[in-house]
Amino acid sequence: MDIRFYNTLTHRKERFEPIDAPNVYMYNCGPTVYDYAHIGNFRSFVFADVLRRFLELADYKVTQVMNITDVGHMTDDQLADGGGEDKMAAAAARLKESKKQGVALIDNPDDPYAVAEFFTKAFIEDAGKLGMKIADEYPAQMPRATDHVEKSMIPMIQALVKNDHAYVADDSAVYFSVQSFPEYGKLSGNSLDQLKGGAGGRVQGQHQVHKRHPADFLLWKPDATHLMKWDSPWGQGYPGWHIECSAMARATLGRDVIDIHTGGEDNIFPHHECEIAQSCGATGQSHFARFWLHSRFLLVEGEKMSKSKGNFHTVRDVLEGKVTGRRVDPAVLRFELLKGHYRSNINFTAKGLTDSASAVRRLREASVPDAEPAPVDHPDMLAFLEQLADDLNIAGALAVVFERMKKVDDELPGILKRVDDVLGVMQARGADGHLSDVQMFCQQLDAARGDKDFEKADGIRQQLIDAGYDVKTTKDGTVASKRLA
Ligand SMILES: [Zn+2]
User: Fold this and answer.
1) pLDDT at 256 over 90
2) What is the mean pLDDT of residues 198-216?
3) Of 394, 415, 435, which one is at a domain's C-terminal end?
4) Pair (336, 393) in one structural domain
């Protein structure tokens, strides 16, 4: 199959061929765990999941790593020179303040490790509910930055100093020298002159006086007062955010050059630009990732999401019904986040969510839980995959599926079963996020009632009762619970 992806590095669609086929090594920039992840973050994470599932269906063996940033991500992350405050420390202060006011998410907000642990768990839970395979099946592939400071980040910084790509400045911090790496700026289209000029004040700051070039960025920040600190050749302190991803990608994927690196468009500069400089500077390779794929922002009702506008939604808010007034099935939110092309802005709206709910309902109604999946070379599957092979054209792929659903025959359930390897929405999940056929039966029952097909509804109800469940109708729909003996 001819797979093409738009590569941010070359600004064009390129034929995708992994270095070591059929293996694909992919790194996704994951969350900074200082708060619950919002739906905009999850747009980019779900995109990475769909990409993984598509490649697997196309017969590649995918090793996917998504990091968890639990130290060193500063509040002024556009500066790339360690300005501002560590987001984890800021979160600890925030939680401490809310504890004083009687709202305690965790017992010990003074401890940034506890804060990180709390939001890491919450993230993995949310990701599992949204059907992200890495959270569901491969949580070990989600490395924590704090576990890699000694074993991978400090050695990589040492290599950069040794290779003359980094230096210790007179404020004792270690910086990457952008002038030592002629390719710096290639990914984002920035030139060193532009960056020197200040790019709208971007490179100004207290660290500028100590640096050789205003765009030099931080690798190690000495700070013996920081709550999360490690011994290093440059004194006690902590790593910069960018070095974390370069080091974790190399350590966990075990390669100097990987096939795919993804992130949100806001990661392109400075984060990914810096990652390329560090990784290539440390390994001497001409590439770090062959393909750079970036998803665009999510808008809410046409506007950029922001806390001040009150349109800032976490996954939990949406699922618990705080956004629409109704509980939302995680599969519906997943569908809403994946149905738009990753290189377009998607607009999250209440209307869109209703459309997604109806799409998921139609897919589930036509599917049969224990159907035998259709072979990948079935003509309808090939049509579906061909769309995805064109830079993950999800709209085209969904059009193939919904067109095929007009023809109800014996083959349809098998095709849908196979299609769901990528979509991941047809099997319902329980409140704990785990897949549940019982939940699916309940939804089919509700759907049948909605269509006034009472015979079908009664049939499903009887099947549940026969299987030992008590069946109740609630305002959120049918609920089945195991009958106690
Ligand atoms: Zn990253």
Assistant:
1) yes
2) 67
3) 435
4) yes
Ligand 1: distance of its center to the CA of 29 in Å? 4
Do 78 and 191 lie in one domain? The reply is: yes
Q: Rounded to the nearest 5°, which phi and psi values hold at 418?
A: -70, -40
- Residue 29, token pair as written in the block: 């920039």
pLDDT of residue 69: 93
Residues 49 and 171 in one domain: yes
Portion of the chain with pLDDT greater than 70, in percent: 94
Same domain, 285 and 303: no
User: Are the beta carbons of 207 and 214 closer than 8 angstroms?
Assistant: no
**Do both 302 and 290 map to the same domain?**
no
- Rounded CA separation 159/92 (Å): 33
CA of 69 to the centre of ligand 1 (A): 8
Residue 69 gets which letter from DSSP? B
Q: Per-residue pLDDT tens for 137-156?
A: 999 999 999 999 999 999 99
Distance 242 CA to ligand 1 centre (A): 6
Find the length of the chain. 485
Q: How far does the centroid of ligand 1 lie from the alpha carbon of residue 270, in Å?
A: 10
pTM of the full structure: 0.88
Can you tell me the mean pLDDT for 57-62?
A: 97
From its phi and psi, is residue 41 left (phi > 0), alpha (psi between -120 and 50) or beta? alpha
pLDDT value of residue 199: 43
Query: pLDDT band for position 250 (50/70/90)?
Result: very high
Burial class (CB in 10 A: 0-12, 13-18, 19+), 311: middle
Residues 476, 327 contacting (CB under 8 angstroms)? yes
Identify which of 274, 239, 343, 332 has the alpha carbon closest to the alpha carbon of residue 11: 343
- CA of 449 from ligand 1 middle (Å) equals 47
90 Cα: distance to centroid of ligand 1 (angstroms) = 20
- Ligand 1 centroid to Cα of residue 133, in Å, is 19
Tokens of 295: 């998803």
Cα of 241 from ligand 1 centre, angstroms: 7
Last residue of a domain, one of 269, 295, 321: 295
Question: What mean pLDDT, rounded, does the chain reach?
Answer: 90
Task: Please tell me whether residues 109 and 161 are part of one structural domain.
Answer: yes
d(CA 33, CA 48): 18
Give me the residue label for tokens 């210790």: 168
| Range(s) of the domain holding residue 445 | 436-485
Please tell me whether residues 279 and 337 are part of one structural domain.
no
State the SS3 of 409-442.
Answer: CCCHHHHHHHHHHHHCCCCCECCCCCECHHHHHH
CA of 272 to the centre of ligand 1 (A): 7
Count of structural domains within the chain:
3
Q: Are residues 224 and 278 in the same domain?
A: yes
| Alpha-helical runs (H) found in 219-272 | 241-253
